[in-house]
Amino acid sequence: MTEPTAVAPLEPVTEDWQRALAVVAHPDDLEFGGAAAIARWTGQGKRIVYCLVTSGEAGIDGMPPQRARLVREEEQRASAALVGVDTVEFLGLPDGVLEYGVPLRRAIAEVVRRHRPEIVLTNNFRDTWDGSYALNQADHIATGRAVLDAVRDAGNRWVFPEQLTEGVEPWNGVRQVWAAASPRSAHGVDVTDTFAQGVASLRAHHAYLTGLGDGSFDAEEFLEGLARPTGTRLGVRYGVAFEVFRFDLW
Q1: Distance CA 250, CA 39 (A)
Q2: Cα angle at 101 between 96 and 107, to 5 degrees?
Q3: Residues 6+ apart with CB under 8 A from 119
Q4: Main-chain phi, psi angles of 197, to 5 degrees
């Protein structure tokens, strides 16, 4: 009989910071796994700002984009409030057709320069969710790749210098970028005490979730399926996993 393969333990992420910026492609991206971690950190008194690259206007098949934009922005603000986030910005780029490149880097660098975070959060941008077959979505991949480069761009005054007006300065204070739910995650955080807030924040995307499949999607069951295995790797009940990219070594 073949012995089961051991799963590597996760190293806890650092929590000696006060300001973070979360940059993802769509409303609901943070809630599919990461919101419980954000609830933990806001509960510690940390300041976290949300930046949504699109408004998810192409995400509801039965709702015209102009209506979906308003609905999804409203749901995202309500969802963020449930985990202690009161600042939610939308860049207004087109949903479903994001492209990695200079325009996307420029837009994200501007947000980094204004909010001056120590930690930047994003979602998995690897080709798959499981390291094998479960393909990721193009907007996620483009956004995550642009986040890494935009963090560097934000610290260089000769890149996008037109942004340096009205007191905005270069910012090279980002220590790490954390990509939630990456198949290459080696770090994680205990969300046992805030798991329920994470579930509530996902449920706040009611219009979007109603349009998924046959309408039987169970937010708690889905998130538990992610959080329990991660928690096992951390030695706790529930956890959220991150792939960590360090900028404090440069």
Answers
A1: 30
A2: 80
A3: 17, 19, 20, 21, 174, 175, 176, 177, 178
A4: -65, -35
CA distances (Å), origin 38, targets 69, 120, 152, 197, 224 = 24, 12, 24, 10, 16
pLDDT, tens digit (0-9, with 9 covering 90-100), for 155-210: 999 999 999 999 999 999 999 999 999 999 999 999 999 999 999 999 999 999 99
CA distances from 74 to 70, 86, 165, 197, 208 (A): 6, 13, 31, 18, 12
**Helices 195-203 and 219-234: crossing angle, nearest 10°?**
150
Tokens (6 digits) for 21: 């910026």
Residues with Cβ within 8 Å of residue 250, at least 6 apart in sequence: none
Tokens of 128: 């798959």
Does the pTM surpass 0.90? The reply is: yes
**What tokens appear for 120 in the block?**
């930047």
Apex CA 192: angle with CA 191 and CA 194, to 5°?
A: 65
Q: How far apart are CA 225 and CA 210, in angstroms?
A: 20
